[in-house]
């Protein structure tokens, strides 16, 4: 497993752009299929075993109700198991020894190899700098809303590594990972078995799309590794808008996407209503700030211009060369 983790780090670094880190830093993400091979099979088997033994925890959160009180909500379509040594439960460690070993030792081997190959990211590799979680989604609302992985509660999170462990996933099942790089078109990635995705936590807005058809009953397994770093919020070479500014303005700039994603990831009810109101309030406060509102307007124009360029590029084979 350690050798596989080291090799995976090298392969992802190569896909991301080698020692220069050019592709990852420029685009913000990279994809590698067939990432773990046999190890992915072992991970998937243990993941299914954890569900069979009822060792997964329901995703839950608190929200402010209209009565002014805090209320707890458990999501029926999302569950997880923490795997890193600071948070793993003893019964999970016993039931999933291969996943536990990966989280406690081999994920650090992966992080060190990635840090060596991509020094621009200044990734941390000391104990506690890598967090690992197994996640399961299923059903109509088995998806995640728009978010960044770097946040107030995870301020040093630099890189996110995902690997999909759902066997037999079909293209028509939906459930794609949607990456939304700032001012660029959204990119939908099918959650294929043993597909790895690496992206920059502080600057890539993302969500998971809802499953559809037969995918509603099919489990969608995701192993997530978060790696801390010292280059969080550092602007990309030639970048005009720093990651901190991107995260600040995204709720207003992508208000429709935020709203749709939240409605799809939560059933109608008090929790959905409260979170929609909070999102709308955040976007409204940004729009009411004179300086920020002007900036948001300018960015919308840039986004629209880039969208036209992408459309023209897609249509050019049918339109022919200009005369």
Radius of gyration from the alpha-carbon trace, in angstroms: 20 Å
Helix tally equals 9
- Sheet with the most strands: spatial strand order: 1-8-5-10-4-3-2
The largest sheet is: 7 strands, antiparallel
Q: What characteristic shape results from the CA principal axes?
A: globular
Terminal Cα span? 58 Å
**Residue-averaged pLDDT, rounded?**
90
Range of strand content: 15-25%
- Pick out the low-confidence regions: none
**Percent helix among the residues?**
40-55%
How many strands?
10
Furnish the topology, listing elements before pairings.
Elements: H1 2-16, H2 22-27, E1 29-32, H3 38-52, E2 57-64, E3 70-82, H4 90-95, H5 97-117, E4 130-137, E5 157-164, E6 177-181, E7 187-189, E8 196-200, E9 204-208, E10 220-228, H6 243-253, H7 255-265, H8 270-288, H9 290-319
Antiparallel strand pairs: 1-8, 2-3, 3-4, 4-10, 5-8, 5-10, 6-7, 6-9
